[in-house]
């Protein structure tokens, strides 16, 4: 059975555990990269990742974007919304439907 994970800074991921998601706070870019690699090899269908951490691990996210599983979804962290998450979703939709969405 597939699972859902959330990774990022502790303050941003902490609340997700109350709704049953597995949370993985990370404290450095290196730790975040290793955790993302580890989760992608396990039975996680969806990995939510904070925009701040995603910015530092974009090369890995790009690598996994070609795979069916896991789906890596960017979420804003406590530091605010940068808009990268929405941009990423729009790109995925455009790729799926084959045309630009306005």
Architecture overview:
The protein is α/β, with parallel strands linked by helices. It has one domain: ATPase, V1 complex, subunit F (Rossmann fold), CATH 3.40.50.10580. 44% of the residues lie in helices and 22% in strands. It has five helices and four strands. It has helices at 10-13, 29-41, 51-56, 58-65, 84-97; strands at residues 3-8, 22-25, 44-50, 71-75. A four-stranded parallel β-sheet has the order 2-1-3-4. The radius of gyration is 13 Å and the shape is globular.
**What count of structural domains?**
1
CATH top level is Alpha Beta
Compute the number of helices: 5
Strands, count: 4
How are the SSEs ordered, and which strands pair?
Layout: E1 3-8, H1 10-13, E2 22-25, H2 29-41, E3 44-50, H3 51-56, H4 58-65, E4 71-75, H5 84-97
Parallel strand pairs: 1-2, 1-3, 3-4
């Amino acid at each position: 059975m597939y699972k859902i994970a959330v990774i990022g800074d502790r303050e941003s991921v902490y609340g997700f555990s109350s709704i049953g998601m597995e949370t993985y706070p990370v404290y450095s870019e290196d730790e975040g990269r290793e955790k993302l690699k580890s989760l992608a090899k396990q039975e996680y269908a969806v990995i939510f990742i904070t925009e701040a951490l995603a910015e530092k691990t974009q090369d890995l996210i790009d690598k996994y974007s070609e795979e069916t599983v896991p789906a890596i979804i960017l979420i804003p962290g406590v530091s605010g919304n940068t808009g990268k998450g929405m941009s990423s979703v729009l790109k995925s939709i455009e790729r799926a439907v084959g045309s630009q969405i306005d």
